[in-house]
Amino acid sequence: MPNLSLTDQQVIELVKQLPFENKYSLLLELAQEASKKRQERMDYAQQQLKQLCQEKGLNWEEMIEEEKESFVDDLVHEE
Predict the structure, then answer these.
(1) Is the residue at 45 inside a domain?
(2) pLDDT tens digits for 10-27?
(3) How far apart, in whole angstroms, are the C-alpha atoms of residue 49 and residue 9?
(4) Are 64 and 41 in contact (CB under 8 A)?
């Protein structure tokens, strides 16, 4: 399949020409991709938090929600 170079605006204009069902399918595909990427970022962030906890002698898995929130808050405000 040939590779096309289109501007964002050109892509938008092409999408506008699609029938409703195709727009809906496209929207679902984009939403699924965004959800997958979000989950990947969340998994990475949690992995990093677990590692930081371990470095400080804490266990992320054993912490209650309030302890996790406090830990993250301390990290955010750490100098």
Answers:
(1) yes
(2) 999 999 999 999 999 999
(3) 39
(4) no
**Token pair for residue 48?**
């990093």
pTM of the model: 0.68
Residue 49 phi/psi, 5-degree rounding, is: -65, -40
Label residue 9 by pLDDT band (50, 70, 90). Answer: very high
Number of compact structural domains in the chain: 1
pLDDT band with cut points at 50, 70 and 90 for residue 74: very high
Counting beta carbons within 10 angstroms of the beta carbon of residue 10, is it exposed (0 to 12), middle (13 to 18) or buried (19 or more)?
A: exposed
CA-based nearest residue to 49, from 60, 65, 38, 64? 60
